[in-house]
Design brief:
Radius of gyration: 36 Å
Helix content: 40-55%
Distance between the termini: 51 Å
Strand order of the largest sheet: 14-26-25-24-15-22-23
Shape: elongated
Largest sheet: 7 strands, mixed
Low-confidence stretches: 68-79
Number of strands: 30
Oligomer: single chain
């Protein structure tokens, strides 16, 4: 997707016009424009020149981002990497507006002194203006012309877009100010004529028909509003700017045996670099030598430094705090974790949430509608007998009070701030759609391994047999398991090393059928394995059997060990539940979300873990290939989110309404997910949902204010309430209200920075409509399937039937669990499978 900088946009109507113009270009398949960052993203085959020409023809300016170089600086990092993005976020408008505002106010003070102070309250003026109505009029005209010249941008942009039949907010301001000035100039000519005829009383009457001060004040007040808006908009991108500033500019690499400081863009994959205490790590890499504590708060939001040693991974922009590290570069440039985070946050800001479509549709017709209302207002008041000055004042008020900006900013500012707050806490939403939809989740499916649990087996219980010490049991088990590659064996080895063991491995090691190991240690035969295996080597007492069964009921795996035919004890190993898992699941349930655990474990083990963490439902025996169909079934209960961390979770993450990759996960999982959590904490899932709901709530508030403001303000400006309540609006007050409306919307969005994403005290349960779920499911027992290829063949055959929604096939179990979306005869299912060369023995 190509990125462009767009100039000349001032409101949501501009966004609509630019999008419409670019969408009409041949070869453009998708376009989205951001008023917040003055940027445009375009997908398709259209050339840069065609796209820029379309934008120019619409009355705006455009240039490819990073013109003269790549938009993202693919070849570098740090200084070059994000130069284009940083440049696009630089606020160049506020300094210009400050200067314009300073000179405008400097001229407005004497203008208002005469037009309001002298004319209305009799404040003293120089003799040349005393009893000289024409002089006062010329004085006001000169000062108002000066203010209009200073703020000529409104007129240039406003009338240019009007000529292109794409009027925007500047058009409304320009028309309002110009109408005030033209009518006042006409009044000045009429006054001058009366004064030249000696009719001073008649000439003085025209002083009250002047709107020179309104013409100037409208421009000044709108400039105030735009300046406040620009400053506030700048704050919404602070998180993104701070991430970009984290990127180091140089790195110390080893070249020809010597340390050399080079620009970050010169670092290549496999380069060796060194980092001293206090320095930032330049690129993603792996530690070769040294130990240190690394502050990763910039990337993960975690304040506690993480200890690093040889073999550990380090990330760009994190800070080495204590020791000297020698590392090898693994990912550089735009491939670093920092670059990926910045890209995700930036891309999310460039996309649009579904809720923004309402505002976009309104904004597209808003300005023409307002101009029409203003003309109707003027005509209406003239028809009922009011003076042209009165009617014009009402029409001008309608023009200047109307604010399409508030509508256009309501959604993007909240999305930008929300993404920034999320990024600070290691919660990354890929798109605006995912940020909006995450908060609407009704069902969450949690993959057990690595999500609810640590993802690596750990020794939980050591039970020596009678007459055997714990130290002996651990030592002999450690020596036996040293040569095994099984994950459970590694848990025992790690436990032994933590206890300070440093023994030689057994000799004559064998991995035996039936989940058993055997070997010799100092001429003593050591055996280890499950109960079934160990009973072939030693006698297991009833008491030990009972204790082992109790461990199994808790979701643990008991490993039995024997020495020369005598049982020496049991070591229980389990994939330990993360400390925060039960709390996170409670938080999700308190939000009104149904929590489901998916696991390939047997029902007994799965239920034990499910009971410990408190999930609503446990679905056991799910093969990696079956997760996708389970997600599909769960989707019948409501909007589903899938949380996983592995490659085998990718299809399920894609199938779910919202896919969440936890603990940064694998690259495949990250690509498939809609939300990426940098930590391995399950509480971050609840925090992401809390963040999404807060952003959506903020958007609703902004849209309500924008619609409410215009719904009340336009009738008030038109004079609808004059006959009922006597309310009459001066155009200057209309301009002030318009200025403040956008400022209020942006300021409200900035309140999201105060959100405590881990505070569950204000969580509210969503109102779920209980859906009647009718699951038609049949289990087919099939013989003849020998391998995964057979599984795939049967699955493809069954899912090819029109009535079949999904099929979960296992050659090991000899079954196919078929989910139906319509009735189908068992005979038809049987025939389809048997035509492929397999036998169906039963269908339940």
């Amino acid at each position: 997707m190509k990125q462009y900088n767009v100039t000349g946009m001032s409101c949501a109507a501009c966004v609509a016009h630019v999008e419409k113009a670019v969408q009409a270009v041949e070869g453009v398949s998708f376009v989205t424009v951001s008023l917040l960052t003055n940027s445009m993203s375009v997908d398709g085959t259209a050339s840069d020149s065609d796209i820029v020409a379309a934008v120019t023809k619409a009355g705006y300016g455009a240039a490819p981002r990073g013109a003269g170089g790549s938009a993202s600086g693919a070849s570098g990092n740090g200084g070059g990497m994000f130069a284009a993005e940083e440049d696009a976020l630089v606020d160049r408008e506020t300094p210009k507006m400050k200067r314009r505002l300073f000179w405008s106010l400097l001229l407005l003070v004497p203008l208002m002194y005469v037009s309001m102070g002298h004319v209305m309250w009799g404040w003293p003026v120089p003799d040349i203006l005393q009893n000289n109505p024409s002089g006062i009029g010329v004085y006001q005209l000169i000062l108002s012309v000066a203010v209009m010249v200073i703020n000529q941008k409104f007129f240039i942009n406003g009338f240019t877009t009007l000529l292109h039949k794409a009027p925007n907010m500047d058009t409304l301001v320009a028309l309002g100010s110009a109408a005030s000035f033209v009518y006042s100039s006409y009044a000045l000519l009429a006054m001058t004529k009366l004064q030249s005829m000696g009719d001073l009383e008649g000439a003085h009457h025209y002083l009250h028909e002047f709107y020179f001060e309104s013409a100037a004040m409208i421009l000044a007040l709108i400039t105030v509003g735009k300046m406040l808006e620009a400053r506030s908009k700048g704050k919404t991108t602070d998180a993104l700017k701070s991430l970009m500033k984290l990127a180091p500019k140089t790195a110390t690499v080893i070249r020809s045996g010597e340390e050399v400081s080079v620009p970050i863009e010169d670092v290549k994959v496999d380069d060796i670099f060194v980092v001293r205490p206090g320095e930032s790590i330049p690129v993603d890499g792996i530690v070769l030598e040294g130990t240190s504590a690394v502050d990763e708060a910039a990337l993960t939001g975690e304040s506690i430094p993480v200890d690093k040693e040889a073999g550990d991974h380090v990330s760009a922009a994190t800070i080495n705090q204590s020791g000297f590290l020698k590392c090898q570069a693994l990912r550089v440039g735009e491939n670093t974790a920092l670059a990926q985070i910045i890209r995700m946050v930036s891309d999310a800001a460039a996309t649009k949430a579904p809720i923004a479509k309402v505002a976009d549709k309104v904004s597209g017709i808003f300005v023409p509608a307002v101009i029409t209302i203003a003309l109707v207002t003027i005509a209406g008041w003239l028809v009922v007998g009011e003076t042209i000055g009165f009617a014009l004042a009402r029409g001008i008020s309608v023009l200047v009070i109307s604010c399409p900006c508030a509508l256009g900013l309501a959604t993007p500012v909240a999305i930008m701030v929300g993404n920034g707050v999320g990024a600070k806490h290691g919660i990354l939403f890929k798109t605006a759609v995912s940020l909006e939809e995450t908060g609407k989740v009704e069902v969450i499916a949690l993959d057990k391994t690595g999500t609810i649990t640590m993802g690596q087996p750990t020794v939980t219980d050591v039970i020596p047999a009678e007459g055997v010490t714990e130290a002996r049991l651990i030592a002999e088990a450690y020596a036996l398991e040293l040569k095994s590659e099984h994950p459970l064996a590694k848990a025992v080895v790690t436990y032994g090393r933590d206890k300070g063991l440093d023994l030689e491995a057994v000799d004559e090691f064998e991995a035996l059928p039936g989940n058993g190991l055997s070997g010799r240690l100092d001429d003593v035969r050591i055996d280890g394995g499950n109960l079934k295996f160990i009973e072939t080597r030693a006698v297991v007492s009833k008491e030990m059997r009972t204790r082992a069964e109790a461990l199994a009921e808790q979701g643990k795996t008991p490993l039995f060990f024997a020495s020369d035919g005598q049982l020496i004890g049991v070591i229980a190993v389990a994939d330990v539940i993360k400390e925060d898992s039960p709390q996170a699941i409670r938080e999700l349930q308190n939000m009104g979300i149904r929590v489901v655990m998916l696991t390939g474990d047997n029902q007994k083990t799965a239920k034990a873990i499910g009971d410990q963490v408190g999930v609503d439902e446990v679905i056991a025996g799910v093969l990696p290939s079956g997760k996708e169909s389970v997600i599909h079934r769960l989707s019948q209960q409501g909007k589903v989110a899938m949380v996983g961390d592995g490659i085998n979770d990718a299809p399920a993450l894609t199938r779910a309404d919202i896919g969440i990759a936890i603990g940064a996960g694998t690259d495949v999982a990250i690509d498939a997910a809609d939300v990426v959590l940098m930590h391995s904490r399950l509480t971050d899932v609840a925090a992401a949902i809390r963040m999404s709901r807060a952003v959506l709530r903020n958007i609703h508030q902004n849209l309500f204010w924008a619609f409410f403001y215009n719904s009340v303000g336009i009738p008030l400006a038109a004079g609808v309430f004059i006959s009922v309540l006597g309310w009459k609006m001066n155009p200057m007050f209309g301009a002030a209200a318009m200025s403040l409306s956008s400022f209020c919307v942006v300021t409200n969005a900035l309140r999201l920075n105060l959100l405590k994403v881990y505070d569950a005290s204000r969580d509210k349960k969503i109102k779920r409509k209980e859906k009647e779920v009718i699951i038609m499911e049949r289990t087919m027992h099939i013989t003849g399937m020998m391998c995964p290829h057979c599984e795939a063949r049967v699955k493809k055959t069954l899912e090819g039937l029109e009535a079949v929604e999904a099929a979960e096939v296992s050659h090991e179990k000899g079954t196919a669990v078929v989910t139906l979306k319509a009735e189908i005869a068992n005979g038809e299912l049987k025939k389809a499978v048997e035509d492929q060369g397999y036998d169906v023995t039963d269908i339940q």
